[in-house]
Design a protein that fits this description.
The protein is mainly alpha-helical. It has one domain. 88% of the residues lie in helices and 0% in strands.
Length: 66
């Protein structure tokens, strides 16, 4: 195999890997957002549960759905 062909193969592989890294980075960011929303939901549920205020829980659920 020629040196230029080998270099082109390597450059193509680097581009593939960079695309994979970008996609994984996006997924990690999405996961972080979901984690934060879950933590917020858990805080609210923990706060509301002792008071058993179904209306407040429903308002929060409705807000999350929007």
């Amino acid at each position: 195999m020629s040196e230029s062909g080998s270099r082109k193969d390597l450059e193509a592989r680097v581009q593939e890997l960079e695309a994979q890294v970008a996609a994984l980075t996006d997924r990690v960011q999405e996961g972080a957002v979901l984690h934060q929303r879950f933590a917020e939901l858990l805080d609210v549920v923990t706060e509301l549960l002792p008071g058993a205020d179904p209306a407040a829980v429903q308002r929060y659920v409705d807000e999350l759905g929007s």
